[in-house]
Amino acid sequence: MQLMEEYSSKEAAQVPVEIEIVKEHDRGTQTSANPEEENLSPEDISDIDIVQNGYELFTTFRGLIVDHMFSFHERSKSRKFFFQRSAFDAFRVMEVELNFIYDTLYTKMAVVHSKKGYCLRLICSILIVLSFERFASHHKPDINHFDVATTYILLSGAVLLDFVAFTKLIFSDWTIVKLKNLTVKTTVYAVREKLSCSKRWSNTLWQCNLINFCVNQRWRWLDIAAETVGLKAFLDEMKYKKDFVIQDNLKEFIFDELRGKAYKARTTKVAKEIYSARGK
Fold first, then answer.
1. Which residues are within 8 A (CB) of 264 and not within 5 positions of it... i.e. 6 or more apart?
2. In angstroms, how far is the first alpha carbon of the chain from the final one?
3. Is 33 exposed, middle or buried (0-12, 13-18, 19+ CB in 10 A)?
4. Cα–Cα distance for residue pair 274/277, rounded to 1 Å
5. Whose CA, among 12, 110, 223, 245, lies 20 to 30 Å from 130?
6. Distance CA 97, CA 56 (A)
7. Mean predicted lDDT score pLDDT of the chain
8. What pTM was estimated for this model as a whole?
9. What 8-state DSSP symbol labels residue 36?
């Protein structure tokens, strides 16, 4: 159904499109699950492999954002990978994958980490440094001292910010996955860990206490005043929301539950039933 809707929309937009049927092994009514997956024991992976595997999963499943359909081969590959991981490593890989998705959707990292992006970044840095050098070497006897000091502050700030951006550009996960030499990868990752001030995920979730919201309400006049000045949502967050630290045992419980359901998804029919029962 989804395939035909996509085909019809492309055809209506007069985009050249054709359907090509590729035969895949073990399709039928069976999924690509392998009975030996149940006997796979967790394997430890290095920090570099965590980043690399997270990027590979990102490139494979980023199509989920636009309801892209995947082959049984891709599904089987990801199943086997997670069956060989512990809960701790699985969550670390997911953190990296979600970090790449966030960078793609909300930042310019995907554009910056390209040949064109590298060239533009280098040109921008050179122009900022040249601007600072030209102003510093220019004779300024007739210019107001306050204006000179302000310009120096602005140019120094521009140079500093550009240096920070350039450093973050070099020592980032995007750089690690693009490098081929393992030694250089390890060095870049080690420097990144030293420079990084925060984790990829804070390991916390925000929770809203609905009972407290219903029982302990504020004075009505205060709510009206806060609504008028646009602070009601802010006050609600302060009073009714709190952060909840995700413990390791909860991660293991979630991972074991998903792993158990994956074991049961031997056929496409069972997999659809499990998917449709989410939240139950």
1. 270, 274
2. 26
3. buried
4. 5
5. 110
6. 8
7. 82
8. 0.73
9. G
